[in-house]
């Protein structure tokens, strides 16, 4: 009798992985399930209010199923290993974020995000994980003795068992796994992100915590764990209000672009405050006592249109302008109030303008209207006449300042850092070497998608499309 030997493709493994982590995390942090319920309500109501327009930035099924996770590892070896674990799920490193410099307080990590890259893989399941690595040799944070102890601690622990790494490598090589292997891979991968029940060394944990709570969460405990899982909503202001109405303490504000009447760009995020979770501590006298830690929180996000390099430069200038005005504003003025004004002055308020000025990334399809004739036509004219229709490309990545804001707003204190000391250098290339795989530049990925679609539009219309710039 013939049995099916077709492997389960990576996209399906990834969808199952996202679900199985959500199940685990919901058991560990019940408030997460509340967040997911409220997110569903928000999305359902948004669709009821906006009809077909609601799907402008992704089908309601995709948006409602969509999650990102965040995890933290302690060394180059652990980062290279987790890259293999994610690789088997078709999740590849994209983008470099240096949170050491993006925050005033002590966040001694550099990060990337593992996610699918191809448009059809993203459409099947876009699960992504923001992954941070402790920079244990950065002297601004760690003295030589603490560095040596961190290295010894990390060298002694195993986050990812050999069997898991072997299955991951097989999935990478064979683009998926047979059913039995798939089950085992999912079980081991999920288990490696569960909160450890092992007692935490009290003095070591709090030695690190005085330097940085993030460092303690990474280097003070015997394994890694999901820090948060983030559902995507279509209206984050609505979500924020509903969570507060349920009595859940949210951080002070929504990070990223403000609410306004123009197109949503990049990423808006907020979170509820980390909840106390019970842990066992081993004390210096050998006794084991219960205590609690607040490190895991619930985050939610709303995604907008990806910005081109010019669009991102404009965004960064608007943020700087917002900061300047906020500093000069009367006490009690919020960042969000100032930002909405700055946005109205600085950012085009239609998708068509974002496309025509090449500030946002779009794909283009041929519309019903007869195209202009001639050897060439401006993109703007084709869009204005309806010969070309622009569809937004959704931002699939993260924002360093928001990431730092999310880390920071959940720290119990600032920690300590000495900026007189030399830092350890990291950039995208250096972190690629650590991972052993090239990290993609997100802007180049969006640009390739947009350019390919413009090239096929030129073919279909039989003319050359010229640009404003
Ligand atoms: C990661 C914080 C950044 C985001 O969505 O920007 C992040 C962490 O807390 O480990 O998840
Ligand atoms: Ni996050």
Number of helices: 19
Low-confidence blocks of residues: none
Cα-atom radius of gyration: 23 Å
Mean pLDDT: 93
Could you tell me the strand content as a percent range?
15-25%
The residue fraction in helices comes out at 40-55%
Give a short summary of the structure.
The protein has 19 helices and 14 strands. It has 469 residues and is an alpha/beta fold.
SSE blueprint:
Blueprint: H1 10-28, H2 30-50, H3 60-65, E1 67-73, H4 76-87, E2 92-98, H5 99-102, E3 109-115, H6 119-124, E4 128-134, H7 144-156, H8 162-174, H9 179-191, E5 200-201, H10 202-211, H11 213-219, E6 228-231, H12 236-245, E7 267-272, E8 277-282, E9 288-293, E10 298-303, H13 309-328, H14 335-346, H15 351-356, E11 362-366, E12 376-378, H16 379-385, E13 388-392, H17 400-409, H18 428-435, H19 442-461, E14 464-466
Parallel strand pairs: 1-4, 5-8, 12-14
Antiparallel strand pairs: 1-6, 2-3, 3-4, 7-10, 8-9, 11-13
The protein binds 2-oxoadipic acid and nickel (II) ion.
2-oxoadipic acid binds at residues 70, 72, 130, 132, 227, 269, 299, 398, 402-403, 406-407.
Protein architecture, described:
With 469 residues, the protein is of the alpha/beta class. The chain has a domain at 8-256 and 268-301 and 402-437: Uncharacterised protein PF07063, DUF1338 (2,3-Dihydroxybiphenyl 1,2-Dioxygenase, domain 1, Roll). 46% of the residues lie in helices and 16% in strands. The strands form five sheets. A five-stranded mixed β-sheet has the order 2-3-4-1-6. Strands 5-8-9 form a three-stranded mixed β-sheet. Strands 7-10 form a two-stranded antiparallel sheet. Helix 1 packs across helix 2 and helix 4 packs across helix 8. The longest helix has 21 residues, at 30-50. The relative contact order is 0.15. Residues 70, 72, 130, 132, 227, 269, 299, 398, 402-403, 406-407 line the site of 2-oxoadipic acid.
